[in-house]
Design goal:
Strand order of the largest sheet: 2-1-5-4-3-6-7
CATH architecture of one domain: 3-Layer(aba) Sandwich
CATH class of one domain: Alpha Beta
Structural class: alpha/beta
Helix content: 25-40%
Distance between the termini: 31 Å
């Protein structure tokens, strides 16, 4: 596991299925995310158990993320053809349906390794070689601003990823930092000693 926080996200070109269902051989991460925020969403395998719940939940929030200028990309070590088959399998039969974001096939594991999220097995619940449940929020300059990871049995909270993007954009727009539990519409904190004191005086009881 590598820490990419504050560093440029690795670029990649790989086969994929787009949100419109088109199969492409050379999806370019850098070209597709130029001038946008990005959410790169790794998961272990298609046609498994926790994974479809995460990908369906992500799809239910993809329009909101797109409205925020976020390009959403999921990645696993499955082929783009397997991704396509999973998209074409009804939800009530274990599929994910026609999700509206790009699904990248990392068959040679190069993307998973570049982001430092390939399992080595060991004491983890993951089998060796698959991607962890890892999420990367990336700003418009291509820099990783948030990096989250769960062990295999623990599904992610997609609303928390949306909140992180909202917090990042709030900071970029206002310069105020986002304290614990910050939600869109809340006040931020001025990152000075007086700013901290003023914020805590008014809000410490809510923390």
């Amino acid at each position: 596991m590598s820490v990419l926080l504050g560093r440029k996200a690795p670029d990649f070109t790989a086969p994929a299925v787009t949100g419109s269902g088109e199969i492409v051989d050379n999806y370019s991460f850098s070209k597709s995310t130029e001038g946008k925020y990005a959410l790169v969403f790794f998961y272990p395998l298609d046609f498994t158990f926790v994974c479809p719940s995460e990908l369906i939940a992500l799809d239910k929030r993809v329009e909101k993320l797109k409205q925020m200028g976020v390009e959403v990309i999921s990645v696993s070590i499955d082929s783009h053809f397997t991704h396509n088959a999973w998209r074409n399998t009804p939800v009530n039969q274990g599929g994910i349906g026609p999700v509206r974001y790009t699904m990248v096939g990392d068959m040679d594991h190069s993307i998973t390794k570049a982001f430092g999220v390939e399992s080595e097995g060991g004491d983890s619940y993951y089998p060796p070689g698959v991607a962890f449940r890892a999420s990367f929020v990336i700003d418009k300059k291509g820099v990783v601003r948030a990096q989250h990871m769960n062990d295999e049995p623990i599904g992610r909270n997609i609303d928390e990823l949306v909140r992180v993007v909202e917090a990042l954009q709030f900071f970029e727009e206002n310069g105020d930092v986002c304290p614990a539990g910050w939600q869109k519409g809340d006040e931020g904190m001025v990152n000075t000693p007086d700013g901290v004191a003023n914020y805590l005086s008014a809000n410490s009881g809510k923390l």
